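So, can you check this record?

>
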Amino acid sequence: MTETEIIRLILHGDRDKFRMLVEKYQQMVFRTSMGFLHNKDDSDDLTQDIFIQAYESLNKFKGDSAFSTWLYRIAVNASLNKVRRSPLKLILQRFGNPSTNKNEKENPIPVSDNEDPESILIRHEHIEWVQRALDALPENQHTAIVLSKYDDLSQKEIAEIMGISESAAEALLFRAKKNLREKLSSSSKKI
């Protein structure tokens, strides 16, 4: 059954078919939201919200682009809106909220039994360092990098999702990578 057929059935009242779309795209939506939020719980919640929004807006999907492109647009916009609405919360998560119980803090980094604590700490700090640099990029560059690196999309797909030309997507990715390198380079000099 094609996505077009599934969507048609959903729009004609077969709500259970939406589960097929959720199962197919859940990881994609989660990865996208993680690229912006860097927090598993928030990304899980936002992923659910994105699918609710997609379900409620499904009648607006015209089929001019692939369903995945349409869903990416919803995921990117919802992620950006979440970041805009709660910058303080994201900052507190990133740098540690003094009112948060340390035991409640989740360890998002998998740990192997044969890895020493210093290596784990260094890896954790490196991930946070990259996330801070990524978050400091202009919004359109951040979006392009997330779609490219977290979701492994081509420039053509990124251009379609962002509503820009393929050459503009290429230039945007180039600038994003350059800015990211500069931010990481300047941060490493401060250490």
In short: Residues 97-109 have pLDDT under 50 and may be disordered. Residues 166-190 form the longest helix (25 residues).
